[in-house]
Design a protein that fits this description.
Pathway: Amino-acid biosynthesis; L-serine biosynthesis; L-serine from 3-phospho-D-glycerate: step 1/3
GO molecular function: NAD binding; phosphoglycerate dehydrogenase activity
CATH class of the largest domain: Alpha Beta
Number of domains: 4
Radius of gyration: 30 Å
CATH architecture of the largest domain: 3-Layer(aba) Sandwich
Bound molecules: 1,4-dihydronicotinamide adenine dinucleotide, 2-oxo-3-(phosphonooxy)propanoic acid
Family: Belongs to the D-isomer specific 2-hydroxyacid dehydrogenase family.
Keywords: Amino-acid biosynthesis, NAD, Oxidoreductase, Serine biosynthesis
Catalytic activity: (R)-2-hydroxyglutarate + NAD(+) = 2-oxoglutarate + NADH + H(+); (2R)-3-phosphoglycerate + NAD(+) = 3-phosphooxypyruvate + NADH + H(+)
Length: 529
Amino acid sequence: MTKPKVLISDALSPAAVQIFKDRGIEVDFQPALGKDKDKLAEIIGDYDGLAIRSATKVTAKILANARKLKVVGRAGIGVDNVEIPAATAKGVIVMNTPFGNSITTAEHAITLMLALAREIPAADASTQAGKWEKNRFMGVEITGKTLGVIGCGNIGSIVADRALGLKMKVVAFDPFLSPERARDIGVEKVELDDLFKRADFITLHTPLTDKTRNIIDADAIAGMKKGVRIINCARGGLVDEQALADALNTKQVAGAAFDVFVEEPATGNVLFGHPNVICTPHLGASTTEAQENVALQVAEQMSDYLLTGAITNALNFPSITAEEAPKLKPFVELAEKLGSFAGQLTETGISKVTITYEGQVAEMKIKALTSAALSGLLRPMLGDVNVVSAPVVAKERGMVVDEVVRAAQSDYESLITVTVFTERQERSVSGTVYADGHPRLVDIKGIRVDAEFGKSMIYVTNEDRPGFIGKFASLLGDAGVNIATFNLGRHSQGGDAIALVEVDGSVPENVLAKVQALPQVRQAKALTF
Ligand SMILES: NC(=O)C1=CN([C@@H]2O[C@H](COP(=O)(O)OP(=O)(O)OC[C@H]3O[C@@H](n4cnc5c(N)ncnc54)[C@H](O)[C@@H]3O)[C@@H](O)[C@H]2O)C=CC1
Ligand SMILES: O=C(O)C(=O)COP(=O)(O)O
């Protein structure tokens, strides 16, 4: 196996380089490359993995050139610089490190809050300029003050914890925060308007979404306490910068500390130069400890995926542990092939697909298996579908996907059945994996078979009447099509029967037409796996 190759296009800790090397992965460390999108687009085609922070924008354009790319690893939390739908459509896993820099970022928010309260940067500049303006700076105490936390997830709850330690009262607005969790972390869950009315300091810790964009705008600011101080260490765009600048001028807002900006790098910004505005250049995650954490973690996660198929912290695929990955692998292959078998036989729109997992396989990561089955099913119809994109594509097409798990009900330790419902009919196909690790077809439309998935196959449904097999076999022989394996099955004597034949090489159209024309034949299809 050739070594997978990873590009690090951002300023990750060199610890990541070492991990990749130790794991036997070739690595190019080009910490400034992310800023050069043309160069990135030019070379991305060579790599199986891309490790980034926030400076690299992984756009659809970059992904279009990423022929070999399997994984984008974000050494950090926010993935708003990655076009995840485009990555998903390409089958590229996008993973992050959701906790590695949370403490550090929470500490940055607290640092900025305290710096705001005591005007530290301005006082420092004045003192070092030799002015000794003892009477110019008058701070505010934070003990007993109310901190409003918008977004109380990983970072917001650490900020809340630290603020409680500083004897503040903490109110939080987060629609997804349960009352129990609020109680556990010692915050009062409130509505946004209430938070605005009550908070002396407001700190933001949500992702940037359509719902959170400009969550603090002119109207919101008008509803706040006069003299409020605002801290944003989450994402630029959560606060309307112009509205905030106006409110700083009228003293409605007494100070603002921003680590993130609508446009980054922020070399000019409407907030710059206002009194009691503190700005840092997106430093939330920039501590030795956090950078070491996220670099090590992302390198391990990416190596695991590239080398073993284990998936951790992916935003567009379920997690699969290193222990699960090898056990899952043959079942992924089985699910994909069963899906493909059903997909190649289906000629009309699919309204629903039910995937049933019986026995041991029911204990596995069935989400991953369902994705595999769907990709096999959809690919014959849509072409460009992969295991990562298949669930999204199925949903977009209005397909209902049901998963059923149950104890073993057959002779097989594990059995997967894919049932496809179209307007015209319902078709089921089942398979298992034997001890040799090879997937087998064991049931087609209720007829028992025992067939491997050959590269090139002919599937025939026919009436169980004498003469068919001979005619079918000699027809293939006469046409120079060599039979590799031959499987037969039937419902009952004289009833519906099937033949599944693996042949060497592809099946010529005219041969298939002749098979189709045999008197007993209902349907003949060439299948490829
Ligand atoms: N400045 C920096 O260098 C860093 C910034 N960040 C950013 O900090 C932010 C928070 O990160 P985490 O706490 O790890 O994320 P998280 O996912 O743990 O928490 C986000 C919270 O926001 C809440 N939320 C979602 N929509 C909301 C809405 N409309 N209103 C109120 N709350 C809402 C969620 O329920 C969740 O609890 C992210 O945007 C991340 O990118 C993270 C690390 C470093
Ligand atoms: O992890 C995050 O979401 C961050 O914003 C940190 O960004 P960075 O890795 O410092 O460019």
